Amino acid sequence: MHTRTLVRALLSSLGLLTLANSLPAASAPQVSAARHDQALDVLRKSIEFRTVKGGDQMLPYAEYLKGVLVSAGFPAEDIRIVPTHGTAILIARYRGADSRKKPIVVNGHMDVVEAKPADWQRDPFKSVVEDGYVYGRGAVDNKFDVAIVVATIANLKKTGWKPGRDVVLALSGDEETDMASTQVLAQEIKDAELVLNDDGGGGLLSDDNRPIVYRIQGAEKVYVDFVLTVTNPGGHSSRPTRPNAINQLAQALDRIDHYEFPAQQNEITKAYFKGSAPNVPGPLGEAMKRFVADPTDAKAIATLSADKEYVGQVRTTCVTTMIEGGHAQNALPQRATANINCRIFPGTPVASVQQTLAGLINDPSVVITRDGSAVEGEASPLRPDVIAAVTKAVHAVHPGVPILPNMSAGATDSMYFRTLGIPSYGTSGLFIKADDDYSHGLNEKVPVASIDGALTIWDILIRTLAK
User: Fold this and answer.
1) How far apart are CA 219 and CA 236, in angstroms?
2) Tens digits of per-residue pLDDT, 362-403?
3) 335: helix, strand or coil
4) Distance between CA 63 and CA 26 in Å, rounded?
5) Which CATH superfamily, name and number, covers 4-220+378-465?
6) Can you give the C-alpha Rg of the chain in angstroms?
7) What is the DSSP string of 301-312?
8) Which of 91, 317, 405, 409 is in the most buried spot, having the most CB atoms within 10 Å?
9) What is the pTM for the complete model shown?
10) Is the per-residue pLDDT at 25 higher than 80?
């Protein structure tokens, strides 16, 4: 799930616009016109499948992708399309020389966020190439990388390349909504050595198209909502009584608001701050250095926590996002509720966060319940082989660009693989400018010029790690 806010934050807060000017401009990757055209064709056709929740285009889209692979030489029996939970998954196995080795998985998602044609300048489900961009829903999230990966694997098959181990293409069908298909997918290939998730990480370009930074997503926070509920007999507003349900809820929310969860680090966030600190001027950069050296440095923690772009990298956060209460202007409230949205640091049990909230509220009449399920998982280790492969691939296109690990505050398919103990890494091949990223928004677009670099990155990644 690419987010425009995160892209902008990295550009501004890391001070990397200045750094970009000192880096070499991107060198032209060696990609044939035929490979470029095929990838562009797959992307454009992919956009025109309206793979939204509740639609009927997921199976046709999966069948189209299967056809691309079969045309490249894949046996039809090595590509499975499985309808599930109102959507579908696709699993294609590129058989390697040694079946005893655990496979590597390339993961992505076929579904997209809904888009209303009336709100767009162009039909979101008709691909349009204009002014150097491909427009359409999913152009970035996530059909760009899906198209690039499919085109890359197809080309590898055509050229006769034989991986040392199996390479499994695993595409889910509801990453943007329920993620039920992702759970099925993860169980189907739980014997994997590692997962490369094309819906995470990726590179940033400056306004003049210079590479700024590449991020490897190696962790994500656990998303969970808690609902606080207070009930009361109520009565006439001219006869106020205590306790008042709304006031009780307000007091509980105030206690939560004034609490900060303990600061935490993991391998991903420590490396992120260490790599970012030299490029961040002033107190923030110094705070990063001190926090890396001493995770209990209260002053450093306070400085980072005061910045909205870094507080999510430092600790678990819980914030009130919705409230509802009362039923009439002239009546005492019989019920008041609030939603507390928490983004929990990897490795912290959800139950312990709920216990902390209950302890803060310290009022048994305020009932706290979990709204929905939560997927808990640890951060993936920064494996040297993965870091080396990503560095090799990215530097083949953008020599010298900084490569940093990243913890996402959002959610991707990776969390279901991490829960099974399978390391998962966000390694999108896309480099994009901040102002070009309209994922989930209107007039989503992707630069045509990004295709060749992404083809090179995925080719090198797969060849290097599938030995």
Assistant:
1) 52
2) 999 999 999 988 888 888 999 999 999 999 999 999 999 999
3) strand
4) 36
5) Zn peptidases (3.40.630.10)
6) 24
7) HHHHHTSTTTHH
8) 405
9) 0.83
10) no
